[in-house]
Amino acid sequence: MAATTTGTGLARAAGALFVVGAVAFAAAATVLSSTFNWPDILREPATVVLPAVVAGGTGLVWTWFATAWTYAILAVPILLLPAVLGRRDDPVLRAATAIGATSVLLSLIGFLRWVFVVPPLGRSYATGDVVTQAAVDAAWTAQHQFGGALLGEHLGQLLVIGWSLTLSVIILRTRVLPRWLGATGLIVSVVYLLNQGDVLATAVPGFPVWDLAGLLGSTGWGLWVGALGVTVLLRPIAGATPRTGAIPISSTVNEINETDGVDGVGAVGTLFESTPTTTQPTEAGLRTGTP
């Protein structure tokens, strides 16, 4: 019963964190999109981005902070999922879990540079002369391509897509969760993968880009993560139903028959013969003369 209670608690924690992480990140990203034109602004030059960062002020910094750490919530349920599904010893799922957790860390770095790196660059650009602005522009491009395009968008997205693709295949093969969840996971992951065209185009000019891949892929993937959380929350835990009632006599007789190779009557007789007789107190008193 204790193991069942622990399993139920883990499932509820993991499912709730998937849902909370997906919803909270979507809310923060929506605010960021409406106030900072994210993610389209990521492809703008420093002459556009840095003045916009300065104009956004402290409120924009805190919005980026919230966006970063709401996404980071997903690392916890990703790590809990193998135990929740009863597949701790599955080497494929364990590898995918490590990949998924690493992807969250890389994306967190990409987000948090907007809190700790970009605002100082913006202030230097806004107050500097032409030479300073040129230097800041170069610094902006370097950190943006490394911390943003490489770590956050390329590696972060590729690894999390690898996690969701692997988990979806495991779901389809083992049916540890509903098959529709595995099928939709494959679809949204592939669409999300197409967003890499936009990332690679920052380093390889002319690389094919599907403009809707980022919006459809990230939105669909986020909805899938929320659905995963709800499914885990509602998923019955194996062994959660307690045993009630006694074992039927017929089952006991059948087991004895199968073991001893005797007929039903002989088995029952043997069973009763081997059962010690308990003498009732009143009857014992009459036989011994005890009052």
How confident overall, as mean pLDDT?
Answer: 85
- List the domain count as a whole number: 2
What is the H/E string?
HHHHHHHHHHHH
Low-pLDDT ranges: 238-291
Query: In what range is the share of β-strand residues?
Result: under 5%
List keywords for this structure.
single chain, 291 residues, 78% helix, elongated
Question: Can you put this structure into words, describing what you see?
Answer:
With 291 residues, the protein is mostly helical. The protein has two domains: 2-234, no CATH class; 249-288, no CATH class. It contains twelve helices and no strands. Helix 2 packs antiparallel against helix 5 (118-127). The longest helix has 45 residues, at 130-174. The relative contact order is 0.11. Mean pLDDT is 85; it is low at 238-291.
